[in-house]
Amino acid sequence: MALLSGCASAGQQPPPASKSDPKPSSKPISKPTAAVMPAEQTVTLNLGAQASLADGSRLTYVRLVNDSRCPPKVQCIWAGDAEIELSLVAAGSSKARTFSLHTSPLQDRGHSELDAGNLHITLQALERGVAPKATLLVSPAQGISGK
Fold first, then answer.
1. Contacts of 91 (CB under 8 A, 6+ apart)
2. 0.85 exceeded by pTM
3. How many Cα atoms are found within 13 Å in the side-chain-facing hemisphere of 62?
4. What is the distance between the alpha carbons of residues 105 and 107, in angstroms, rounded to a whole number?
């Protein structure tokens, strides 16, 4: 008879765990991580404006250094170049790094993109005028020192 009662209880499920029983987790325990920079972030800045980036850094459009670009609706031999000065304060830092980007850099003279710390910053567009808006693409740095 004991054999039959053992078989009868074999198909039954165990009683539900009480609230005090710890439940095992199938998820691995992960370590806390720093802020992760998204793959890309597009930022448009007015002259003198500052943007807070996804990783906590702050990017400031300091000034228009030079603009020798060919005016619209004018045929020029050379398209010209514009240069802007930017300032970057990395997340958790108070020290600013200042650098310039160009719309049409000459070989070995200026860059339209560069790595600044753990960020890669590219000047995508610069409007025309005395205080043109700058559109920048910010992404994680991948070892490019400048193009």
1. 35, 55, 56, 57
2. no
3. 16
4. 6
